[in-house]
Amino acid sequence: QITLKESGPTLVKPTQTLTLTCTFSGFSLSTSGVGVGWIRQPPGKALEWLALIYWNDDKRYSPSLKSRLTITKDTSKSQVVLTMTNMDPVDTATYYCAHKPGIAAAHNCFDPWGQGTLVTVSS
Amino acid sequence: SYELTQPPSVSVSPGQTAKITCSGDALSKQYTYWYQQKPGQAPVLVMYKDSERPSGIPERFSGSSSGTTVTLTISGVQAEDEADYYCQSADSSGTYFYVFGTGTKVSVL
Which candidate in A108, A115, A117 is best for mutational testing of the B interface (most B CBs within 10 A)? Predict the structure, then answer.
């Protein structure tokens, strides 16, 4: 059974850097094709894909947020870390991490997801 | 930027059929995936590769694709199907970025 759980601060101040950790079990990020992605959802709004890291350390970022995002992995700890710089109140959202089952076009989805963590940006 | 467009809301009576559309330029080239999200919960994958149903998803959920529009159909809607539904796909190459639809609220009257 694959499970993921997000952790990090619930409140950050404007201009600060957000660091979120996704700790997972039931799969290994050393398995060929596997990836972990981050998605966020502002209150009452739609989902927004942020970033993705693959087993081979290949990384993908949202074009609109690329300059602010960094995704890394620690395979030995079964963790993926997302950092987002220069936080703003509009970045207030629930942040989810999710498993990506493979690199093929048939696997361009996220399943399952973590429970999410709400991050509020306010002074 | 690449966008996937969905109707904001769909209302349906129990036992009837709900159809949710998702439109995007690259959908003729890339598979579409659908997620169900109930209040306070994380999204759950209910359809992959346009029309494949993951294990555990009821048969009343089906998917289809035609050109740049894909459709999620819920036949014989039940009260428990009331939720937000999001489509998701990838850029035209399928390798650079991923995008979610605007979301559709399905209300069971």
Answer: A108
Q: In what order do the strands lie in the sheet with A69-74?
A: A3-7, A18-25, A79-84, A69-74
Structure token pair of residue A75? 């395979």
High-pLDDT (> 90) share of chain B, %: 84
Q: What is the per-residue pLDDT across A37-74, written as a single tens digit (0 to 9) for each?
A: 999 999 999 999 999 999 999 999 999 999 999 999 99
Is-contact B32 B87, C-beta < 8 A? yes
Q: How many CA atoms lie within 13 A of A95 on its CB side?
A: 24
In A, minimum Cα distance to B51 occurs at A106
From A109's Cα to the closest Cα of chain B, the distance in A is 6
Does the beta carbon of B57 lie under 8 angstroms from any beta carbon of chain A?
no
Residue-averaged pLDDT of chain A: 96
Chain B residues in contact with A109 by the CB 8 A cut-off are: 33, 45, 48, 88
- Window from A10-24, A93-107, B72-86 with minimum mean pLDDT: A93-107
- A67: number of Cβ within 10 Å: 9
Q: Is B55 in the A-facing interface, judged by CB distances under 8 Å?
A: no
CA distance A22 to A24: 6
**Whether B73 contacts B63, CB under 8 Å:** yes
Contacts of A27 (CB under 8 A, 6+ apart): A2, A34, A99
Band (B94; pLDDT cuts 50, 70, 90): low
